[in-house]
Amino acid sequence: MINIPSPLRLRLDREALVANWRWLAAQGGAAACGAALKADGYGLGAREVMHHLVAAGCRDFFVASWAEAAALMPLVEGVSLSVLHGVGEADMIAAKTLPARPVLGSFRQVARWRAAGEGRPCDVMVDTGMNRLGLRVEEALGGALDGLAIETLLSHLASADEDSAQNGQQLAAFRELKGRIPARRYSLANSAGVCLGTDYAFDLTRPGLALYGGTPRPEAAGHIRQVLFPEARVLQVRSVRAGETVGYGATWTAAEDGWVAVANMGYADGYLRCHAGSGAASWQTRRLPLAGRVSMDLVAFDASDAGAIEEGDWLTLDYALAETAERSGLSQYELLTGLGQRWAREWSAPGSHPEA
Ligand SMILES: *Cc1c(COP(=O)(O)O)cnc(C)c1O
């Protein structure tokens, strides 16, 4: 096999990932801290994320679907994996074969599991205000769950990233459920919920975004480290004359004679057109603003202040998630999960940095 190097790479910082998990774990007090791995670990690569977090002590993981669960096999001994979308008719074979639990999220799913789950363990989601997945509180309290051996009872916060009265209402509803529905563990908080304090942590938290460098609430700012650093290779450096334009629609005009660096990356890689006007990259200590529109797989940066840049050099994109979300209008989640398959995902090698 020939090894064809990619002109795009995501540098992924294992130590930052682990440091973020430890910070989130500490915010949860005595609660265990799990990890949401859905959407291929928010685009970073679920297997690698799981591997690094297991090594750090994390034991509880969450994916969306059975296909995502299957992709994580075999599991390390003692690791728990939950499938957030529960179990449909078509999932039953996977659900009875794989060492993972469905998070039963409707009356029908509970009935299906009772009938065909062969007494295997399950989790249950009860809706306390999101109205997405989960049994209604009345259903849960009205006998729908009687006799079911529930490993973890979950609910999900709808507005935890805001100072909303809904947070307290969902907390109160979940406490009531905890008093009335037996389960081995109780879990309410995502990343933003973790930042709301230990009242929200119960037995197990399930952050996603903040593990991967997102800042869900102001409390996390300054504690959460950037994990993902997208880098693109310069395909060519070209001169532009004052008055010339760059790219589709001629939206950028060179003010003076200068240089642009054209890189192997575009909206097909998840670097969307809304970065135009505010996107930038860095090379050594120089900042290179985006010049003109983003094409499908090409983008140009104004390199007039980076005189020595050459074809083949790597540019590091400005991609601090909170700031990038602010300026682009994309959410931090979209910034992570939108990055496509052409990026080579390269984790910092264990031991390449001194342990913190
Ligand atoms: C995605 C998800 C999480 C993680 O949410 P973040 O906001 O990324 O921390 C936790 N719980 C459930 C049910 C989810 O769907």
TrEMBL record:
Occurrences of domain Alanine racemase C-terminal (ranges): 227-348
Binding site for substrate: 132, 296
Matches recorded under SUPFAM superfamilies: Alanine racemase C-terminal domain-like, PLP-binding barrel
GO molecular function: alanine racemase activity; pyridoxal phosphate binding
Cofactor (UniProt): pyridoxal 5'-phosphate
Keywords: Isomerase, Pyridoxal phosphate
Isomerase is among the record's keywords: yes
Enzyme class at the top of the EC tree: isomerase
GO biological process, one term: D-alanine biosynthetic process
Catalysed reaction, written as an equation: L-alanine = D-alanine
InterPro entries in alphabetical order: Ala_racemase (IPR000821), Ala_racemase/Decarboxylase_C (IPR009006), Ala_racemase_C (IPR011079), Ala_racemase_N (IPR001608), Ala_racemase_pyridoxalP-BS (IPR020622), PLP-binding_barrel (IPR029066)
EC number(s) given by UniProt: 5.1.1.1
Modification sites for N6-(pyridoxal phosphate)lysine: 38
Bilayer-spanning residue ranges: none
GO cellular component, one term: cytosol
Family assignment from sequence similarity: Belongs to the alanine racemase family.
Name of the protein in its database record: alanine racemase
Organism of origin: Sphingopyxis macrogoltabida (Sphingomonas macrogoltabidus)
Organism phylogeny: Bacteria, Pseudomonadati, Pseudomonadota, Alphaproteobacteria, Sphingomonadales
